[in-house]
């Protein structure tokens, strides 16, 4: 029977995800020569060629992709086994490492932790790591976190066998206007009414993409007057009359007297928040309890 070495299979999967031997070595804290040697040994064990030269780089063969399709089921089963073993050894009060983008920490993670602490049974020890929405899947793949909150716009497809995705909420986007703006009190405000205004949003990243996509759906390209990523800075610029901005309702709790928040009922722009786990890990008791608390928190929030 062919020998399947899980450690070497993980190296092959990382090479597929990272693209180069050097990037794979950096991700796994190995040397490039060690990566190459491990993959050579795996090819000998399986009796097939896994890599082929493509210029100065290498690419995975069709046989390698076939091997990885089956290996994903092995990885998921190992995640389930580890989750069940952790539940057996620690009960439901194990440690769960959670990565979340900045606004999700106070709006979802902290209330979920409070909910767990208020229960009759001891809750899991939740360790929080703030991370950009797009970074969540790198952290999950590397095993640095157990659960991640991200935005659906940055989620892999539902067919990606590495992850299980759980929609949590559709977070409405409101528009922040200076208190003295001519449309601050106008009825039935729409995004298109602000097409000629100066806009404030980040220079890159998910929030820039969400803002521009919402405005383009309303029929215009926003003129970016200022670039800022933090909500404190964005709302301060709006309060000073330097522009307008879309603000997720999860972040709008940081109120300023000189800022008027308007709900865009006609446009209804939203960003969708998801929880992501390594496939198979959802069967772990501790992770399942944290996911349930996040789901309940998200339901009450919306």
Automatic annotation (TrEMBL):
Residues 4-61 form the HTH lysR-type domain. The keyword Cytoplasm does not apply. Keywords: DNA-binding, Transcription, Transcription regulation. Pfam families: HTH_1, LysR_substrate. It comes from the Bacteria. SUPFAM superfamilies: Periplasmic binding protein-like II, Winged helix' DNA-binding domain. CDD domains: PBP2_LTTR_like_6 (cd08423). The keyword Ribosomal protein does not apply. Belongs to the LysR transcriptional regulatory family. This is LysR family transcriptional regulator. It comes from Streptomyces sindenensis.
